[in-house]
Write a structure and sequence with these properties.
It is built from two helices and three strands. By secondary structure, the protein is of the alpha+beta class. It has a three-stranded antiparallel β-sheet, with no helix packed on it.
């Protein structure tokens, strides 16, 4: 009784295979995005590659400061 936990949900964009454009540059990033779309076969609205999103749920125990994800 009296113990507290903190819950956090963080939304991330999935990074295409080979890396994203912020790390590799726009031209190589677009190539990687297209290659991932060809591999997965998923397309979004207007036929753009659908990479998707990922969610990370993190719980921190307030007493021991232990984090669980």
């Amino acid at each position: 009784p009296g113990s507290l936990i903190h819950v956090d949900v963080t939304k991330f964009a999935n990074i295409p295979d080979g890396g994203g454009w912020r790390y590799l540059g726009r031209q190589q990033g677009r190539r990687n995005q297209a290659a991932t779309a060809r591999r997965t076969g998923q397309r979004g609205k207007y036929y753009r590659p659908a990479i998707g999103t990922a969610y990370v749920h993190t719980v921190i125990d307030d007493h021991s400061r232990t984090a669980y994800a």
